[in-house]
Amino acid sequence: MTADKPLSNRDVRRAPLLDARAATRCPLRTHLMIEPPEHVVEQPLPVDVLVRIEEGRAFEDQVMAEVAAAVGDLPTLTGDEAATLAAMAAGVPVIPQAELRDHEGRRTGRPDLLVALPDPTPGGRTAYMPVEVKAHLVTAKAKGGSLGPLRACAHTDVADGLDPAAMAEVEGPWTRKRTDDLLQLAHYQRLLEHHGHAGPGWAGVIGSDRTLALVDLTAPTFQSWRNTTGRWSTLEKYDREFGFRLDVAALATDRVDGLTDEDPLVVPARSSECDRCRFEGVCTPRMEDADELTLLPKVTWDVRQRLHASGLTTRTALALADPTALPTKAIREAADHARVQTSGVPLAKVRGADVLELPRADVEVDVDMESTADGRVYLWGCLVTDRRAGTPPEYVPFVDFAPELDDTAVFVAFWDWLQRTRKAAIDAERSFAAYCWAGGGAEDRYLRLYGPRIGVDVESFITSPEWVDLHRVARAHVTTGGSLGLKVVAGRLGFQWRDDDPGGGQSMVWYGDAVAGSHEQQRRLLDYNADDVEATRWVRERLAEVWADLPRVGDLMPTG
Ligand code: SF4
């Protein structure tokens, strides 16, 4: 299955060559990169994104060095197209940092590695498979199943020559979330086809555990509500996605050159990509003006298209729709989010939440932890409130900023203090509860990591009524029309953080400085953590105070 020419409906010959990310990139971004809006305010990338990019590069350099050491004789190409073509023609077994272009298909790409396969192409040339290096796990088992059987080996096995077809299959460890990896590999496969050096469809990703996961780009893999004939292979999905971006790019080019005044093929639609896109400042106001459905949580482009097909084209229309006529639970929830967003209320009761079931105690401890990039907790922060005594809450941190972090010792100190505080409350015949804002379950996960390490029973504590996940409580009772993160919920209830830009990624940068001895950043991290535990206490107190006055989501109507 080859794509001899672009699967595009337009004359794309004047479009720029698109890179490997094009097929997964927001199509409007492709348009705006060619026809930029007048007033683009450059936004610096979030610090955590920059840190991840830097870590990704460092990981890639390390893996490439290990592969080079295993192979022993790697050519140095550094993105030279002529040298890449010469190396492929000579049948070099492993080619790093290749550069390939396809002017007919309007593609360009730089696969990290091209690895020769044992069987030549039908034309008698050396066949290659593309391999990418990624600083994430590629073999973690996905919750919702897998993308099918997987063949895998160590990354340095490329030195001995690989025959993916002869390797044993492992069932189901491929993570679902890496569509972008697969489409990137499909892009390189199409480039190899153009140059007559493609294999039958094998490709690989070296993940953060240095496993080389091999995938068959021709295997049925992707399902879509638009596809009624079964699953698409990665190559089929890629061709559709890439072909559409080519149409977008071709039209944008023609508009720039004054050859057409046809409207762009795409409109702004919210996705996770927007947060790190330079056009966000242009697109968000346009989405607000258009009352765009993708501004609602979990309304993806596909869901939006389904809603449009049923005549619901704006948040307001969805908010006004009869909930009993909406087809799925997810769409009914989206309609409730739309009611909150279009009515302008900061917080509303979810359906069925008539009574606030919020566990309270005489002695309450709010808990929040901060961890390093490699998952070690350096700070357990606690805010203890004796409600009967009526004394001000006290912040008690357990922290280690030493370069040689002893995270087990930090946990021992925290756990001992928590148990002593609990025992003192119970001995004084007072009730006790500890609270966290777990969301993704980090606190429970770390309790389960460190508890067995020091031989204490954390399980009976985690499952007891004394350990309360306030995020779960909030989710059962209120909606913001969007995120239920602590920052949003506490903010809607009037809480303000001392730091202008609190956030997990930012805190990792502060931590690096704190470990290097910066007292200012140590103080900042403690203040940040103290604000987080104060915020969970604030949510508990304020929610109890305002509960009776909160509107029900079903009663909300769009304003304006
Ligand atoms: S801000 Fe979002 S919608 Fe706009 S171009 Fe960027 S990713 Fe696309």
Automatic annotation (TrEMBL):
Endpoints of the signal sequence: none
Residue ranges of domain YprB ribonuclease H-like in the record: 367-543
SUPFAM superfamilies documented for this protein: Ribonuclease H-like
InterPro entries hit by this protein: RecB_nuclease_TM0106_put (IPR019993), RNaseH-like_sf (IPR012337), YprB_RNase_H-like_dom (IPR038720)
Highest taxon, organism lineage: Bacteria
Protein name: YprB ribonuclease H-like domain-containing protein
Biological classification of the source: Bacteria, Bacillati, Actinomycetota, Nitriliruptoria, Euzebyales
